[in-house]
Automatic annotation (TrEMBL):
One of its GO terms (molecular function) is hydrolase activity. Pfam families: Beta-lactamase. PANTHER family: BETA-LACTAMASE-RELATED, BLL8153 PROTEIN. It comes from the Bacteria. InterPro entries: Beta-lactam-related (IPR001466), Beta-lactam/transpept-like (IPR012338), Diverse_Enzym_Activities (IPR050789). This is Serine hydrolase. Residues 1-21 form the signal peptide. Keywords: Hydrolase, Signal. Residues 103-376 form the Beta-lactamase-related domain.
Length: 398
C-alpha cells in the first residue's frame, strides 16, 4: 500500500511539473490553464459541472422573486402522481418514467402546469441549490434579449452586423443581425463536437473570443446558403447586443430579464476570461433549474411576470420557422420547433448533453429537464416523452 501511495505522489508531482511547464504555452495559444484543459479532456467532472473550469460574470437575483404555487413537495425523489408513469419511447414502445429519467441521465426534472409547480425532481442527488449550465439553451435566452433590444430601439434586425462589430472582416459587409438570429450567416464554423481540434471546440475554450472573431477572415463564407445550425452566429449576436446596448451582456440580462422575471437565485454567464470578459453567448448560462423554469413560465404568461411586462408580447409567439434541421425539428429565432405529433404550438430550447426548456402554450405547461446525457442523443424521443407527460397532466386536471 505504501508503494502505491508513493507512486501516486510521484505521478501527482510529475503532472504538476508538466502543468507548470505548459502554462506559458496555453497562455500563448489563448487557452485555459493546463489544469482546466486536463479536467475537460479527461472529463474529471460531469458535463453538468464543467462550467467550473471557466471564468464567469455573475448577475444578481431579483429583489422580488416570483412565487410559484406548488402541488407537490419541493425537491422530491419520486415522480409526482400527476405525471404519466409511462412515456413514449423508441420504436413506438413506452418506457416507465423513472427508467426514462435514468436512461437519459436526468439531473433535474421540473414541470409547471397551469401555473403550478407539479414536479421538482432531482433523481441523481442534486437540490434546488445546485447550479447547472444551460449549454445552448442560452441561445433561446439571447433571442429574447435581442427582442428587448429591438423593442427599446437599440438595434434593428436589418442592421449590418459590422455596424456594431467593425473589427469583423470586411467580407461580412452583407451580414445582417437577422441572419445571426435565424442562423443564416453562412459562416462555416462547423459544429463538430467529436473533435478537440474543431473550430467550435476552440471557440468554447479560448480565452480571447475577440481574437477568434477577428480571425474569421480565413473562414469560408457562402452568402445565401440558408439555415445551418452554427453557434458562431450566436456568439456574434451576443457581441452585437452588447455593443448596441452599450452594456456587458450579463448586465443587460440581469437588468432586463433576470431580475424583472423574478429569478430566485443569482447566476452567472461563462466568459472567455476575466480579462477578456466576453460572454460565451452561444452557451453557458449557469443557474438553478427553478429559475430556468421561471424563464419558461415567462413565455406562457406572454412576457409578463409579477404583473409587469418583461418581454415584448410579439416576441412570445411561437417563432416562425426559418429552416428545417431534420425530420424531427425545424428552427426559428433561437428555438427548436418539433415537427412530429405536436399540436403545432409547442417549442423548446435544447442544449447539448440533454438540457431542455420545453414550452406548450396549449396545455399551459413548461418542462425543464437538465441532464448529463450524450452530446445530441435522444432529443426527438425526449420531446415525445414530454408529449406523454403533457397528455397525462391534461387528462388528470380535466
Amino acid at each position: 500500500m505504501r508503494q502505491y501511495k508513493k507512486i501516486a505522489l510521484y505521478c501527482a508531482a510529475s503532472l504538476s511539473l508538466l502543468a507548470a511547464a505548459c502554462w506559458p504555452v496555453t497562455s500563448l495559444l489563448r487557452l485555459p490553464s493546463p489544469t482546466a484543459l486536463i479536467g475537460l479532456a479527461l472529463e474529471l467532472r460531469p458535463f453538468s459541472q464543467s462550467y467550473v473550469y471557466f471564468d464567469s460574470a455573475p448577475f444578481a437575483a431579483s429583489t422580488n422573486p416570483q412565487s410559484l404555487q406548488t402541488s407537490s413537495p419541493a425537491q422530491s425523489t419520486s415522480p409526482s402522481p400527476f405525471l404519466s408513469q409511462q412515456v413514449a419511447w423508441r420504436n413506438g414502445a413506452t418506457l416507465d418514467l423513472a427508467q426514462f429519467l435514468g436512461q437519459t441521465h436526468t439531473d433535474a426534472l421540473l414541470v409547471i402546469h397551469r401555473g403550478q409547480l407539479v414536479q421538482e425532481l432531482y433523481p441523481l442527488g442534486a437540490t434546488r441549490e445546485t447550479v447547472f449550465p444551460s449549454y445552448s439553451v442560452a441561445k433561446s435566452i439571447l433571442s429574447d434579449l435581442t427582442g428587448i433590444a429591438v423593442q427599446e430601439g437599440k438595434l434593428s434586425l436589418s442592421d449590418p452586423v459590422r455596424k456594431y462589430l467593425p473589427y469583423l472582416p470586411e467580407k461580412f459587409d452583407s451580414l445582417k443581425v437577422n441572419d445571426l438570429l435565424n442562423m443564416h450567416s453562412s459562416i462555416h464554423v462547423d459544429e463538430k463536437y467529436d473533435s478537440v481540434f474543431s473550430q467550435i471546440a476552440y471557440m468554447y475554450i479560448t480565452t480571447d473570443l475577440k481574437r477568434f472573431v477577428r480571425g474569421l477572415g480565413t473562414t469560408p463564407f457562402t452568402p445565401g446558403e440558408g439555415f445551418v445550425y452554427r453557434s458562431i452566429d450566436y456568439l456574434l449576436l451576443g457581441m452585437v447586443v452588447s455593443a448596441a446596448t452599450g452594456e456587458p451582456l450579463t448586465r443587460y440580462l440581469q437588468d432586463k430579464l433576470w431580475q424583472p422575471m423574478g429569478a430566485q437565485y443569482p447566476a452567472s454567464w461563462s466568459v472567455d476570461s476575466d480579462a477578456g470578459a466576453v460572454e460565451k453567448s452561444f452557451c453557458c448560462i449557469n443557474a438553478r433549474a427553478i429559475d430556468f423554469a421561471r424563464f419558461g413560465l415567462l413565455h406562457l404568461r406572454r412576457g409578463q411576470a409579477n404583473g409587469k411586462a418583461v418581454l415584448p408580447e410579439s416576441w412570445m409567439q411561437r417563432p416562425e420557422q426559418v429552416g428545417v434541421a431534420d425530420a424531427d425539428f425545424a428552427y426559428g429565432r433561437g428555438w427548436w420547433l418539433p415537427r412530429r405529433a405536436t399540436n403545432g404550438q409547442d417549442y423548446t430550447a435544447i442544449g447539448i448533453h440533454g438540457q431542455y426548456i420545453y414550452i406548450d402554450p396549449v396545455s399551459d405547461t413548461v418542462i425543464v429537464k437538465l441532464s448529463d446525457h450524450g452530446a445530441e442523443q435522444d432529443e426527438a424521443l425526449t420531446v415525445a416523452a414530454f408529449h406523454s407527460i403533457v397528455a397525462s397532466l391534461s387528462a388528470a386536471k380535466n
